[in-house]
Amino acid sequence: MNQENSIRTPDTESEWKKYFDLRYRLLRKPWGKPVGSEKDKIEKECIHAAYFNNDKILGVCRLQKNNDQTGQVRYMAVEENTQGQGIGKKIMNYIEDKARQEGMSEIVLHARDNALRFYESAGYVFVAKSYVLYGVIPHYKMLKKLS
Hints:
Low-confidence stretches: none
Oligomer: single chain
Distance between the termini: 33 Å
């Protein structure tokens, strides 16, 4: 099966390894965090999305259900050399469709400084400053109502 430019949940051990490796390399390694810090205890309860280009994963994202109405986007990352090519937008559209299918009416997320414009362009609105990760990475709570 040709998988060029598809978005789906990883389904083999090799795909899961690539999925978590991208999350680690982009979201944890630059701050000296150990392998394993890119995962948490609710991975199996969540919806995962990976942007595949043939056998490479170029972007990842996770949707967790906070309650019946609200989903939360976490661990969104796109390979640096492919940012600006629409991969993140496609992943977000996929995740929002999954949230609607699950009956969710809104999505919240906590964005880093460098991602605020991306999420605003995807229809998310700033709610409040939220937390500072590792004492150095400010995050901002954002929200999008799903139609």
